Amino acid sequence: MGYGRLEPSEPGGSLNANQPDDATSLPPPLSAPPPTRNKKKLIFLSVLSLALIVASAASAVILVGLRTRAGQPGPLLARKPTQAISKTCSKTLYPSLCVNSLVEFPGSLTASEQDLVHISFNMTLQHFSKALYYSAGISYLQMDPRVRSAFEDCIELLDDSVDALSRSLGSVAPTPGGANNGNINIFNREDVMTWLSSSLTNQDTCTEGFADVNGDVKNQMTEKLKDLSELVSNCLAIFAASESDDFAGIPIQNKRRLLEETDTFPRWLAKRERRLLGLPVSAIQADIIVSQDGNGTVKTIMEAIKKAPENSTRRTIIYVRAGKYEEDN
Ligand SMILES: *[C@@H]1O[C@H](CO)[C@@H](O)[C@H](O)[C@H]1NC(C)=O
Ligand SMILES: *[C@@H]1O[C@H](CO)[C@@H](O)[C@H](O)[C@H]1NC(C)=O
Ligand SMILES: *[C@@H]1O[C@H](CO)[C@@H](O)[C@H](O)[C@H]1NC(C)=O
């Protein structure tokens, strides 16, 4: 459109007013105008008009560019949450995060409430994967041993969470060949709750690890792991609300109870310790072995504790062999 309007207006437009001795208005009285001059002018004019065409084309492109940008000023404004999204998110503890993260996710705007369960799982999984990818990307940074240890724990925990979320998604995603109602497998409900809860615990553990350190790595990790716990919490709420029979009425705050019931370890035990305690003895490399028969490093638990290094940057594992230890402290 810019082409058609600008080009014809050129010869009779403002250009003419500024340059009266235009090629078209070249007065006949000039009996023998040097042809070269004329030619030069023509060339000059055509160059000028070409420049104008280019300029108008460029401005058209810029206009189009601006318009498409203005057309979608951030997906949040353009994409209104559907009724299903609003309803689903109203059940969560972080409804606006829920809405904002869902509307951006492919397929959410046409999804039913039922579909939104696996879509929120998937969306959360993608956030975790991204967080893992970007967190692992800063491992080249200089870190003192304590920070390094916290950092590496977080990476491992994130990896674990990605795994747990993938399994959860696998359980709730509609099976391709399955029945149309694509329903959630009842048998997996508890597993799914446990997996989701474990990713929540992982986030806590990761945060705990950075609790008494400061600096750039901590700040960067905080930024990269932003919203992850909230997203999982929302998944738990959405999942819990997705079937009215057994899980309805269990508020999301009670998720910990489930964790306690299904875990053999007490709740205060962090993920790392659970993992360690879950290992077979043969897989554990103990630093100090307590054994009454003298086959260990030391004979009493007290000696072992004294032997453990102070302010160590790594965990000291004391393995106490079976036996009855009666010690006076
Ligand atoms: C999860 O989302 C991704 C990206 O939108 C998609 O390719 C994938 O099929 C989804 N997975 C499931 C199980 O829905
Ligand atoms: C302690 O070590 C000795 C020799 O290495 C071995 O004969 C004995 O059975 C060990 N005792 C136990 C309880 O393992
Ligand atoms: C361990 O740390 C504490 C407090 O930071 C300090 O008082 C103590 O001297 C340290 N011990 C050793 C063996 O470095």
TrEMBL record:
InterPro entries: Invertase/methylesterase_inhib (IPR035513), Pectin_lyas_fold (IPR012334), Pectin_lyase_fold/virulence (IPR011050), Pectinesterase_cat (IPR000070), Pectinesterase_inhib_dom (IPR006501). Keywords: Aspartyl esterase, Cell wall biogenesis/degradation, Disulfide bond, Hydrolase, Membrane, Transmembrane, Transmembrane helix. It comes from the Eukaryota. It catalyses: [(1->4)-alpha-D-galacturonosyl methyl ester](n) + n H2O = [(1->4)-alpha-D-galacturonosyl](n) + n methanol + n H(+). Pathway: Glycan metabolism; pectin degradation; 2-dehydro-3-deoxy-D-gluconate from pectin: step 1/5. The chain crosses the membrane at residues 42-66. GO terms for biological process: cell wall modification. It is an enzyme of class 3 (hydrolase). Residues 1-33 are annotated as: Disordered. Residues 80-238 form the Pectinesterase inhibitor domain. GO terms for molecular function: enzyme inhibitor activity; pectinesterase activity. Acts in the modification of cell walls via demethylesterification of cell wall pectin. In the N-terminal section; belongs to the PMEI family. This is pectinesterase. It comes from Acer saccharum.
